[in-house]
Write a structure and sequence with these properties.
2 domains, 519 residues, Leucine-rich repeat, LRR (right-handed beta-alpha superhelix), 13 strands
Length: 519
Amino acid sequence: RATMKSLRFLSAEAFVSNAEFARKSLNAVAHNLFPLLFKASYLLEQGEVIHDLVENWPLVDFNVGKLLGPTVDYQEDLSHRTCSVCLESCLTGLRDYVLNHSSPYMKRLKVVDLTGIKDVEVQFCECKRTMGRWARTQLLSKLCVELLAYLQQAQCHPGTFEISIDVLIDLFVTERNYELVVHALLKKCYCPLKICCVAFRSDNLTLQKFFYVIKLTDPSLLRKLEIVHNVRLEMEHLEILFSSIHFPLLMSLTLPARTFNVQRFTATDEQMLINIGEKMGEMTQLTELCMSFSILTGRIQKLLSPLKTPLKMLDVSNCSLNHADMAYLANSFHANHLESLDLSGHDIPELYPSTFFKLLSHSSSVLRSLTLEDCNIQDTHVNMLILGLSPCQKLHEFKFVGNPLSSQALKHLFTFLCELPMLKNVEFPVPRDCYPLGITYPIDDASLCRYDHQKYESVAEELKLILLQANREDVKASTPLFGSYDAAVQETNNELGTYLIKSFKETLEKFTTSFNNLS
């Protein structure tokens, strides 16, 4: 559906569509029109005009999320367009803002905010080339290093070194860009462009490098910390991290798989877990916690009870929770505030059906996202599930891939889902009757794609027809067999693959050495 454009926006589009004319005329443009021209240039992917607008930016702040978000003149949100042409032009324009020959004392820009850029799966930009979070981290670091080197060599206006612009960014550091990011952060105090890390994600890094770079980011400003793939952080390292570094503003924490493993706990480990819980309790802003693929059986209360602020997002998928854990969650003060909950990988109908529905009942007034993948939800449980979901009138997203449900049960469930007014995204399983007889759940990766594709397509069409007949074309329904889209993994999958192969090779070599020693 086309979004209406105001006459002002149409005029701005006409102005920037002739790049050569627009660039020559910028000196005559009123300062309050720069935001309008920026969004029009971004929509038309006029890289050169974007560069010149940023290079001559006359305002105190440059907030990309707000500039590209819905405005009076054009309601369309462009902040999910991570267009490489546009974003590179923004960042090089920022570098040239510092180098611009106009007097440094005329320059007003103090804050650049790049955190509002959203990385999504489907891009609508013409160039079809995206600049993800990792690439933005790489380019900004490179520009800061190059800018400082240039300023030290060239004869610049003395006031240039007095320019100080805070650049707020969500950093994404891996082995491949580690050296460059560290170089930029070490020189931060000398560079006019000051990298201010608001959110930090780390993949494929040794613990030593992770600890070093996280200290350089200025953790006192950090609101989101994601330690995800191939960072071998275990419980003792987490205790050291929280003991040596304070995160007063941290709102969101994601820990890597197997951070906790209670199966091999000693008395020392129990105390360590209590210490970690207490440290998290000191993070008074913490409202989002992801601890998937750890073994936390019977320890959820120890970890979460010290928290003073209720959690709004909790991911404890594949954490081997027992009845005591679920009972704690259902009765805790967190339950009434949970907007996003992931309990995937737990046999809910078998282990704790009533306790789960109690938790769902307590969170129903605020719950926006619910993920129950590989939870052994069968046809006989669908009516109970519908009863539990009925009060969840604010639910935006429901993911239940990997459950052994038949085509008939899915149709019944979809008929109900049409009644949830806020629902926008559903991820449903391949129906059980599309797989060969005797398939066991959870389905292993080798068997995941061995289903009747033609039958699946037919069922999927029927499910979409149910949505259509209920006037719910606004609901997206899909079956992502290998998990939901992760922009960070998509961007760095080559490096991730290389790291995994290297890790496997090292393990194999160790095994061979041990075997030879035995021989």
